[in-house]
Amino acid sequence: MIKKIFFYILSFGIFFGCNDTNKEEADLLVINANVYTVDDEFSTAEAFVVKDGKFLAVGTSKELQEKYNSAEVVDAQGKTILPGLIDAHAHFYGLGSTMQTVNLTGTNSFEEVVARITEFQKEKNTDFIVGRGWDQNDWEVKEFPVKDTLDVLFPDTPVAITRIDGHALLANQAALDAAGITTNTPAEGGEIEKKNGELTGILIDNPMALVENAVPQTSLEDQAAALLDAQKEVFQYGLTTVNDAGLDRFTIELIDSLQQAGELDVRIYAMISNTKENLDYFLDREPLKTEKLNVRAVKFYADGALGSRGAALKQPYSDKHNHFGALLSSVADFKATAARIAGSEYQMNTHAIGDSANVVVLKTYDSLLADAGDRRWKVEHSQVIAPEDFKYFSKNIIPSVQPTHATSDMYWAQERLGPEREKGAYAYKKLLDEAGIIALGTDFPVEQVSPFLTFYAAVARKDTKNYPEGGYMSEQALTREEALRGMTIWAAYSNFEEDEKGSIEPGKFADFVILDRDIMKVSEEQIPDMKASATYLGGKKVY
Question: What percent of the chain has pLDDT over 90?
Answer without folding.
Answer: 92
